[in-house]
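Could you please consider the sequence and fold following this short note?
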Amino acid sequence: MIYVAFIWHMHQPLYKDRLTGRYLMPWVRLHGIKDYLDTIAILRQYPKLQQTFNLVPSLLEQIEDYAQGRALDRTLELTLKPVPAWNADDRIFVMERFFDAQWDHMIVPFPRYYQLATKRRDLLTQFTPLEASRAFTYQDLSDLTVWFNLAWFDPLWQRTEPAIAELIQRGQGFTQADRETLVAIQRQILGRIIPEYSAMQTAGQLELTTTPFYHPILPLLIDTHSARIARPQLPLPNSPFRYPEDARRQIQRGFEYFAARFGHRPSGMWPSEQAISPAVLQLLVEERVKWAVSDEGILAQSLGTRLVRDAKGQLLDPEILYRPYTAPTAAGNITLIFRDVVLSDLIGFSYSRVPGAQAARDLHERLCAIEQRCQHSNPLVTIALDGENCWEHYAEDGWEFLRNFYDTVSDDPKICLTTVSGYLAKYPAKEILTDIHSGSWIGSDFTTWIGDPVKNRAWDLLLQTRQALENYSGPEAASALEELLIAEGSDWFWWFGEGHDSGQDELFDQQFRLHLRNAYQLMNLKVPKEIDRPVEKSVATSLVAPSFGAFDPTSGQGTMHATARTIGRIEYGCDGRRLNFVVEFSSRFAPSEQDEVLIYLCYPGQTRHNSPLNARPAAELKGVTSSFLFAHEIRIGFSPLAAVLSEAGEVFTWHALPINLSVSCREALKVDLPVAALGQGPGRELHFVVVVCQNGNLLEVLPRNHTLGLRIPHSKKATAILTWQGAPYGE
């Protein structure tokens, strides 16, 4: 028999301004009516199946605010505000934000919403959002506010809530009373979330865990220099941020909030972004945490080994991953479990693209294969992932997939779905893990939150505010510290700089600086001018493009849904003489003879021939695939492995150049070429994208809506900094 521990991570950052009570984004409310209750409602129908849910305190606080009518975001305000009273800003906002829903599953199935969406799309090709809004009648706009809210209700509520079902059936002609009814139903659903999780925990079907209150990267709060353990040459902020007391406070506050709602302290913890370090583990032990979950990449680094998988993604030595470990610290021991990346990512990113029954069958077959391969008894397979953002990409919000999978495993005596603590009570950890690597679930490092010039600038601002707080002892010290703790959250740094694009990055930047500004105001200090300037713009004049960088393609549609299909990581660097690219493929993709990787380069401010991507575009991939032109193309084929450099010519043509490129593809694809071949020199800036094609058809382009950039340094002053870590299927 194998034991399977599902851990669903439910998280949203704090979107509210504590000083005004206003919410800048609606995602807690919208995910609250779509993702938090239905997941356990399905599970409740299978009482023999047990799972673990991780609930972040900053999410729970906001759920309570909405349920009790204390929260007001802009979309909620306009849902309730009579349309004739809207001003120009209201109309612009509605045109821009009331279509924030997954196109295929949340807009297209509803004829009236689809009609309004296509009307808006067509108008915006010719008019500004305000001008486009004038083509919408008052009734159109009223219907739009209702449909935006209706689309976010889970299919469960669309089927079983009479008022919701009636509105969907009616389709249009909605009134102010209908809009108010929707909001009342939303509050009722949100008010059920915490009590129902608590009830299922009491019944023994769920184990509930939590995370430090505002979801910070604990190793970086303790010491930002811990980022150099995985990336020794990583550029860091001007001065180190070292506040272990803040890390402890975030943990303690999280436990206190959780215990007040659920009546006990949890045994386990999901460290934010599964980021751990030796110092973090000691802190967790001191705060009485019994177990924590991290990523298989951290396990491999800690053991100094490779987790090798076959062509189907199955581990050749499964015993390494599928067991708990004891990690000794100076304060005592803690148990660590490590998630299976392939299984977790299949649910998070891949299964949504196939029928639910097929996906469920594939997952069951993979678990059966693990059971057959494991030699030791009672292995624990940990599947841990975001529990909310993936479902909008599934048909029926994942109901077909989950029902089919639960039906199958309920009848399989060789597979037991369990809670983590339930498993550890029977089979405590026997293996000792003494050398803990410092890293997160992304690349086994911290580059998603530090190392980029913009991210580093944000850390500088955070440190500046933290130091000001150290010198303040007035009556608002506690409130000012609270604002600082909010700004320490991981989400702001996630969206800063290269690597992720939410489509609303400026709002996350604004929220980060808002909390710093609030801290200064509470301390009755003058707010520094740099706090009023967007973080990215504050570094644009001097650090537009560094001489090296990395890109983790884990953002995309929705709020934070990762859509990368083929590429797991891109690294790039230049020493002034040679340009280097490293492309690490995702665990779900291995290049074959039909595949090609293409790197397209352009040079801002230079007049020269440019051509579009030389690939047949995919309908669902927009952005650079249709609107960007490039000066050079590096085309890599795999049968045989070869790389060709081409230059753009007249009338959108490409011409191969007689330049030798160095290319290899063992653990990752590596390409190296002389800068002189591009006709570029020191100080020049170049931008690029990486494209994957199969039989000439575009599979993926990264980044999707912008380019990556670097500046060519002077070779005598520059050091090439380019490291690679990880491989296909974790090799």
DSSP finds 26 helices and 24 strands in the chain.
